[in-house]
């Protein structure tokens, strides 16, 4: 099944101010140790998949994207990779209009990147992946030339300690994360398939990135467990037409409960986020009209 990154994004987030956008990104960071005990009835691969399937079924009519962090599957070895591949296949079959992102934060020399692409896109069938910029655009070219696939490049990240390198000044009024973001927007996005990771806990930084990258989609991790302010992050990240953000929450959705009501709680939190984002969008559009 042929899927195109740009078409998926545009269908999920129409520029029409009278229509809502689908921006909530459910992070299926399915830490096996945290999966509810009553869901562990079979082997690792089946347990992980069944947990993911339950979360998906409860959120599929609300979410615009699903982000699967590769580490949580890789740590379980072959069974984890089997669960990851089966999850992606299930989501594509049952919600063909949503975006599937594998959060792997990879980059290497060009020859190696070509093989990363074969795995994440041709084997797992992801629509987009996260990558870092340090190797440069020449090394990244085997990935970036895949026009139908998306690449969220690390701009400003959500975790502690990001200021050690990312806030370093590379010019009188330019931090390193702004330089990276501007480079991606101006030089890497030739085929229109690049976006940026912009950490939700830092709305001021998100605003600065939006200034240098006005047309790129942002992946905003860090609401929920990392305590980013959802409304402020969304408002800082919107493009002029009120689109261009995918707000990720993982633990606060999928592990909102470890009891029999875990799907209900996941659905409720996804709905809450969707409501907050679309209210913030209306306010943003009114203020910028």
Report on this structure.
With 289 residues, the protein is an alpha/beta fold. The protein has one domain: Aldolase class I (TIM Barrel), CATH 3.20.20.70. 47% of the residues lie in helices and 16% in strands. It has helices at 5-12, 44-59, 70-74, 77-94, 110-123, 137-144, 163-166, 176-188, 203-212, 230-237, 251-254, 262-288, and strands spanning 24-27, 65-69, 99-106, 128-131, 150-156, 169-171, 174-175, 194-198, 217-220, 245-249. The strands form two sheets. The protein has an eight-stranded parallel beta barrel, surrounded by seven helices. Strands 6-7 form a two-stranded antiparallel ribbon. Helix 2 (44-59) packs parallel to helix 4 (77-94), helix 2 crosses helix 12 (262-288) and helix 10 crosses helix 12. The longest helix has 27 residues, at 262-288. The chain is globular, with a radius of gyration of 18 Å. The termini are far apart. The mean pLDDT is 96.
Quick tags:
289 residues; alpha/beta; TIM Barrel; eight-stranded parallel β-barrel; two-stranded antiparallel sheet; 12 helices; 47% helix; 16% strand; globular
Q: Characterize the overall form.
A: globular
CATH class descriptor name: Alpha Beta
Q: At the third CATH level, what is the topology name? A: TIM Barrel
The average pLDDT is: 96
Helix content: 40-55%
Q: What is the strand content? A: 15-25%
Q: CATH H level: which superfamily?
A: Aldolase class I
Number of domains: 1
Strand order of the largest sheet: 1-2-3-4-5-8-9-10
Largest sheet: 8 strands, parallel, barrel
- Secondary-structure content class: alpha/beta
The total count of helices amounts to 12
The CATH architecture is Alpha-Beta Barrel
In whole angstroms, the N-to-C terminal distance is 40 Å
Radius of gyration: 18 Å
Order of helices and strands: HEHEHHEHEHEHEEHEHEHEHH
